[in-house]
Design a protein that fits this description.
Strand order of the largest sheet: 1-6-5-4-2-3
Distance between the termini: 59 Å
Helix content: 25-40%
CATH class: Alpha Beta
Strand content: 5-15%
Radius of gyration: 19 Å
Order of helices and strands: EEHEHEHHEHEHHH
Number of domains: 1
Number of strands: 6
Structural class: alpha/beta
CATH topology: Rossmann fold
Shape: globular
Largest sheet: 6 strands, mixed
């Protein structure tokens, strides 16, 4: 594989690097619930820092609240339905909640394993079914009889594993189809929910990770960024510490606006 030429690296521009449905004046949380899959579980670096969910907890304590009960419901390999099922085990009670959701990659991966002809139908079925699963989450935590002090949701979109770059060993068009599916899921499930609800914000990580996955240091790819960044996804799937920090930094940016003091 030809490596990136350091003298010819493109300028990095994230022109669609968005925070969607940003809501303000939300109740400062005293409970943080982590919902998701192995990315939310900091696979490969668990127990070490940086880890985005723990960094978020610490940031909330330093800047927005004096007490946070940290409740983990994430698990490696989780799909959306299983992640929601796990979230529903959170005990009702007082305290404003922040529910941080990072899930969907395993659902999308399952569609990639059914073959090209059935893949599009699988993704469409996934996008059709996913909103009702999220609604179960919203209904549970939004019930004032269970959680009387309010809830705020942060939804994290899925990134690409392929850097918009076709490898010779992949079927022609595979990357285009895979990334189209990711964008569809992000836009129709996660971003759509954030735009519809006044308690939900979606963070778009897709552009942040272009150039940091399986083709991070492959010459000729449109997002080729050489040695210092090629290990962001050490196994081509999961973020290492640098990737976890990137996820946290965008989450921090949103949190500081969501929980900023309201003007009288």
């Amino acid at each position: 594989m030809a490596r990136c030429d350091g003298a010819e690296l493109p300028e990095r521009v994230d022109d669609d690097d968005d925070i969607h449905g940003l809501d303000r004046c939300r109740p400062a949380p005293t409970r943080l619930v982590i919902v998701g899959d192995s990315i939310a579980d900091c696979w490969g670096i668990r127990g070490l820092d940086p880890c985005a969910p723990r960094m978020l907890r610490d940031h909330l304590l330093r800047n927005h609240t004096s007490r946070v009960v940290y409740e983990e419901r994430q698990a490696g390999g989780a799909r959306l339905k299983g992640a929601v099922d796990a979230a529903l085990t959170v005990e009702p009670g007082p305290g404003a909640l922040l529910v941080w959701v990072y899930v969907g990659g395993n659902d999308l991966a399952s569609c990639g394993n059914v073959g090209p002809d059935a893949g599009l139908s699988c993704v469409n079925d996934l996008v059709t079914a996913a909103p009702s699963e999220l609604q179960r989450l919203f209904d549970h935590f939004g019930d004032p009889d269970r959680f009387p002090d309010g809830v705020t949701y942060i939804l994290n979109t899925q990134y690409s594993l392929f850097d918009s770059c076709q490898r010779p060993d992949q079927e022609e068009g595979f990357v285009d189809d895979a990334e189209a599916a990711i964008r569809l899921y992000n836009e129709e499930v996660l971003i759509a929910a954030a735009l519809e609800r006044d308690d939900t914000t979606a963070l778009d990580h897709f552009p942040d990770f272009l150039g940091h996955a399986q083709n991070a240091n492959r010459g000729g790819c449109p997002h080729c960024y050489a040695d210092e960044n090629e290990t962001w996804l050490e196994d081509g799937i999961h973020p290492n510490g640098s990737g976890q920090r990137e996820i946290f930094e965008k989450t921090r940016e949103a949190v500081d606006q969501i929980f900023a003091p309201c003007e009288p």
